[in-house]
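Supplementary Note 2. Why include the ligand at all?

Several targets in our set were suspected to adopt different conformations when bound, so apo predictions alone were not considered sufficient. For every target with a known small-molecule partner we therefore ran a joint prediction. The input for cobalt (II) ion is given below.
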Amino acid sequence: MDNNRLCWCGSGMPYSQCHREFDEKWNEYRQKGYIVPPRKIIKNQKQIENIRKSAEINIHVLDYIAEHIREGVTTEQIDRWVYQETTKYGAIPAPLHYEGFPKSVCTSINNQVCHGIPSSKIVLQEGDIINVDASTNYRGYYSDSSRMFCIGEVSEENRRLVEVTKECVQLGLEQVKPWGFLGDMGQAVNDHARKNGYSVVREIGGHGIGLEFHELPWVSYVSKRGTQMMMAPGMIFTIEPMVNLGKPQVYVNRSDGWTVYTKDGKPSAQWEIQVLVTDNGYEVISY
Ligand code: MF3
Ligand code: CO
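The joint prediction is reproduced in token form.
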């Protein structure tokens, strides 16, 4: 490319001052046979700022849920809170009508792994562990994160599952750096889960996000160090492993087409953060 031309990233900067060095590395790694990220998932500063604004709302929504969730609340009520706190800031809950999903948020309790549908029939009970997964579309920019909540006193077994799953995400995050591999992150997650006697769901993963709800790459948490797509500055993806107390196998509820359960009926936990790869490491965009 002519070095005086504007950069392909849309920054409006001359290429030579923008992604030229990036492209040199990118080409070098591609020639070595590694999987390098496609240009369309590399965000420029303007896009990152907009995605951060979306994430601010997403974080607020989960903070609001954290303050209000308690025994006796229905998951339908959580859905209403999410809708209310998202639209209040001019944003739209990204799950609403996404591929036919009927609600604004996913609420997954106990042996539900993910994509649980809020319902007036599901009343939170003491001892439940629940994942609330919120995603926001703000002016076409996307954010996505989820947290676990323990309702009242929960069993030691469940409390530990929730805690270790959060540690898995943190250990995965610490592997995020430019020109490292997504497999470095995936292996860190899986190693910690297994060390604690748990298993990680294989079929469902994380994803690139920002300009669309779900972008490349698909992100595994059972991957191996030195494999999968390379991480590069400007890439944004989720770390959202589903960790099972028992076996890793899952199935989808046939009647609602969405809710994923553990096959063995044992509990599952998930935390999700949205991460930007920076020039020297990472920035957590949403949590
Ligand atoms: N954060 C979840 C995901 O990225 C939410 C999916 S929304 C749904 O998979 F509509 F697909 F459920
Ligand atoms: Co997600």
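Residues 90 and 141 are 12 Å apart (CA to CA). The mean pLDDT is 98. Comparable summaries for the other entries are listed in the accompanying table.
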